[in-house]
Amino acid sequence: MDRTQVSRAEGRVAVIRPPRPAVPTRPARPAAVIRPACPADLPALAGFFEGLSVQTRYLRFFGPVRPTSAMLDLLSGQPAGVHAVVAVADGVIVGHAMAVDQPAPGGGQDRTTDIGVVVADAWQGRGVGSALMRALVGQAEARGVASLAMDVLHVNRQVLGMILGHWPAAGIDHSRDSLSIRVPLMTGQPERPPAPPAAAQVPALVTVGGSIREHDHRTRGRRDRDRRVAT
Q: What is the DSSP annotation of 202-225?
């Protein structure tokens, strides 16, 4: 059919354009959830780290490291003082984060926890890293930790942007290749008692979404309400 038709009664030319082709839609990704890592995750963790690109492993470990069996035990959160979480989508690990508590200098109460986060290449930029960080922040506050500590390479712009976007007032020490970042947490709260054995078998799930700062505000609001009730 000719794309141009002439209306004799009105003396106008109407241009008839062919319909636009349908734009193919990307298949929706399954939702990711955050849960504590456990020894049963060892084979899946080995596959997760093996599947990371060399660049992603370099940014996480400051070198193209392939975790050994001893490192995998650490990454699964088995030793005391190590707290690890994983992001899981459709039964597959797509992200990992861990926190290692450090004693306060001189035996004081202001403990620090060292944080490390990594996300599968295909899932980067989708909020998984922020969700993993939220989980670690919540756990650290529950343990009464005073601050987070993170070492990040200068070239890791994505993680630096995430951290400084959530904590613009974070303390930063510069070195030749990396930044040492320290973030104070809410303090003055007693450590939560451990969950009973039956509840411990059901891991808490955190859906991907929101921001670390939102978590901080919600926690601060709950604590402010608790203080008002106490007074």
A: S---EES-S-HHHHHHHHHHHHHH
Residue 22: its pLDDT value, please?
Answer: 63
Q: What tokens were used for 71?
A: 């490192």
Please report where in the chains the tokens 């078998």 appear, as a residue.
201
pTM of the entire predicted model: 0.69
Strand segments (E) across the chain:
4-7, 12-15, 32-36, 82-89, 92-102, 112-119, 147-153, 171-174, 178-184, 206-207
Q: Tell me whether residue 162 is exposed, middle or buried, using C-beta atoms within 10 angstroms of its C-beta: 0 to 12, 13 to 18, 19 or more.
A: buried
pLDDT 10s digits, 173-229: 998 889 999 999 875 444 443 343 333 332 334 334 443 444 444 444 444 433 333
DSSP letter for 52, please. S
31-57: string of b/e by CB count within 10 Å (b at 16+)?
ebbbbbbeeebbebbbebbeebeeebb
Per-residue tokens: 82: 């190590």
Q: Indicate the fold that domain 31-192+205-224 takes in CATH.
A: Aminopeptidase (3.40.630)
Question: Do the Cβ atoms of 123 and 95 come closer than 8 Å?
Answer: yes
- Average pLDDT over every residue of 148-169: 89
The ranges assigned to domains in the chain are: 31-192+205-224
Q: How far apart are CA 72 and CA 75, in angstroms?
A: 5
Is the separation of the CB atoms in 185 and 140 below 8 Å? Answer: yes
